[in-house]
Structures are given as C-alpha cells and as structure tokens.
Specification:
alpha+beta, tRNA-splicing ligase RtcB, 15 helices, 33% helix, 25% strand, binds guanosine-5'-monophosphate, binds manganese (II) ion
Length: 470
Amino acid sequence: MELVQEDRYRFRIVPEGDMRVPGVVFATRDLLADAEKSLTQVADVATLPGIVTASYAMPDIHWGYGFPIGGVAATAIDEGGVVSPGGVGFDISCGVRLLAADCARAEVAPMLEKIMDVLDRSVPRGAGPGGVWRLTGPRQLERLLRGGSRHAVEEGHGEERDLARCEDGGAVPDADADQVGPRARERGLGQVGSLGSANHFMEVQRVAEVYDRHTAEVFGIAEDQVCVMIHCGSRGLGHQICTDHVRAMDKVMARHGIRVPDRQLACTPVDSPEGRAYLGAMAAAANYARANRQLLSDVARRAFARVAGRRLSLVYDVSHNLAKIETHQVDGRPRRLCVHRKGATRAFPPGHPDLPEDLREVGQPVLIPGTMGTASYVLAGVAGGGAFFSTCHGAGRRMSRHEAARKISSRELRNRLERDGIAARPLSWRGLTEEAPEAYKDVGEVVAASEGAGLCRIVARLVPLGVVKG
Ligand code: 5GP
Ligand code: MN
Ligand code: MN
C-alpha cells in the first residue's frame, strides 16, 4: 500500500486494485504507528459500490469489524451506493451526552464522594440485563424505538429543552420497528436505561480550560464548571440488529452483483429491500440509544439534586456510530449520500440549518471522551469541515483489551486514580485495567490533529473528578 503524506495532518492511500476512490487519513506519523491493519481496512472500504470522494480515517483510527473505528465513508444513493452495517458498528448510535451543573467544582467538592456513591448504586451496568426503566411491554418498546429521547421526555424523564440539544431533536425519523427481530427485542426489553460494560461510563468532570470563551458560553459551559459526561449506546438490541442484518446482507450480496474484499463489509444498495430494512432497524436502535442516554441523565440529575441541590442542563447529545442520509456537495453539485460514521462524530459547521437556532452561530458541539484518568474535550464543527463534516470520536485504543489487562495492575491503577483525586466506581477493579489511560492514545494529540486537519476546533478541555464504569 502506498501512503503519501500530503501535509502535516493528511495522508493519502493511492488507489490500487479494486479501490474506487483514494483513502484519506487525517493523522500524524506518531498517531499512525501500528495502524497498518486499520489502514488496510480504509483501503478495503474504498472498494464499496457508490463510494464518493474518499474513504476517510480520523486521527483516532484503530482496527474494527470490517470498517476501521474512526472511519467515514459516503455512498451516492442514486448510483447504487451501498449501506453496510459494519460501517456503523455493533453498538448502533453509541454516543456521548454532556450535562452542565449550575455550579463550580468547589461547591460540590465536599459532596463528591457521596454523589459518586449514589451514582454507583443507581446506574445499572454490566453486560447482562437490568435498566432504570421497566417497560410495560412490547408496545412501549415500539413507542421507544420510534420516539427515542422524545418518548423518554414524554414519559417524564427529562425536560422539553433537552430535545433541542439532541442530535435530530432526540429521535431519528424512519425507524422501522418491524425490521427489529425477536431476539433483538427480547434483549432490548430488559436493558432500557443502562450503561453496558467496559468503555461505557458516566463521569463527573470539571472544565479545566476554555479555549474559546464565546462558543463555550453559547454551549453553556464555563471554566471550573462541573459537568457530567455519559457514554453509552444501544446495548444488546443494537448488537443483535447488526448481527442479524450482516447475516441477511451476506446472503444476498452476490445477487446484487456485489463483491467485497472482506465478508465483514457485507452491504447492499441503500435502495434495496435489505438496505431499507437495515436502515429502518438501525434508526430504531439509534432511538433506543438516545432514550438510554436520556434515562441515565435522569439518574444523574436526581443524584445531583438529592445530594447537592444542583441542576444539570443538557449541553448536547451526539452519536458516533451511525449512517445518515445527508445532502453534500460532491464535484460541485448536491448529492444524496449515505454517510457512514463509525467511531467518528458528525461536526456540522456554523450556519447549518439542522442545528438549533441558539447553536447555529457557533456550530455543532462535538463531545470527545478521552480517558478516565486524563481528559476529555468539547469541540465545535467548522466551515469547510472535511470528511462530510466529521471528526474524531475519542482517544482511540492503543492496546487491545487483552493486552491492557495483562500489562496493567489493578492495584497500581487504583492507587494512581486515588492519588489523582479521581473517585472511581467500577463494577470490577480488574475489568477497569482494560480501560486504563495508557490503553488509549493521547487524546490531546488526537484533537490537535483533528483541529489541524481542519475537521473541527477545540473549545474546552474537561478533566475527570469521578467515574462510574461498566
Ligand atoms: P468507543 O466508542 O470507541 O468505545 O469509545 C470512545 C472513546 O471513549 C475511547 O476512544 C476513549 O477515548 C474514551 N473512553 C473510554 N473509557 C473512558 C472513560 O472512562 N472516561 C473517558 N472520559 N473516556 C473514556
Ligand atoms: Mn459503545
Ligand atoms: Mn462509543
């Protein structure tokens, strides 16, 4: 594979073999150390029918199922462009939500341990079933799959204003519950309002530094303010939908005349029965993930109100595993595209009509978790943003879970977090080592590269005070 450095933050994979477009990788040489396997995935994605402009990779790229995590690919719907479940990932609409408390750190510092204890007890998590909401039955699940956060708010779990600060107003249109199979429903029923495991978390943070005061003010955050960041997705329901639809597409790909270099890239045209079925089910899972984050916000709000008498306002909620039908300029004309973002965050620029009025002047908030021991970031979309207005989604893994668990001692990690004043409430300390800061790339380098590549700009840095981990 020929990787050509075009400028400081941009590399190009020269098309060869069946590649229809080049690969474009936004990163630095350092961030690409050990990225060989994931760069092959960027090249593989470039072979997909209907792909336009380039197969993109963000600075937090690492290996994923079929597509790399940190990958963006758009296909032209009117040219037989495909949709691929692997381009969304198993945790459909996994994403991040940030809430801002109406106080500075000093005001909650004496109550922090208590807040963390309440969250520890009240946030359902782990791999199995359990959730804050026991649904009345399959009918309510269907309402939730259509209504997302909106349904949760209508049922009393949040405020109307929350919806204005959610991507898509809290619910993706065109969810088709009929395309969600029985096993997926069964798994979904018992997990509404739960964190899941491993990389998912609820973290109490402090705004350590603001780089753009005006934008931060519009977003609703200020230096030293306390925030709560929630990272979770669509649990077993999303996972099962991905499994089911990959299998369905794998069976009919040949009939559609599609050949892919890796079976994990299973896909069919957006405009095919299987493509439409997947997108309908995917939208349902996306709504499940949003309702999930809405319900967990309710848990955080109750803990803050009860222990500290404080309120939490939603800054934004955005997913980083999703395919969306969007219109973008390609070769000077507007095209309807299916934009896959997998481990990549939509970053709409200032003035974008889909942004709520109060955010339109400054651009979309982009929420980037880093690690439980270092930092996380708030970014904003920029005019002319590359990769169909997308940017990174996190620090990105450097070590596999297995490698991290082998190399890092849970006792040492526990001591280190304690020393740094981070109140950790893990489900298990052993499991926590898989998520240790050194298992991830340097999030500061990742966001600097994202900004340097013209994908976004940095608004604020947040540091952890306490973390509830799955
Ligand atoms: P993913 O969606 O790929 O599973 O994870 C997104 C990002 O979350 C990771 O790349 C990592 O940077 C970040 N992350 C994982 N665990 C934690 C945590 O406990 N706290 C924070 N702030 N970030 C985390
Ligand atoms: Mn996830
Ligand atoms: Mn995620």
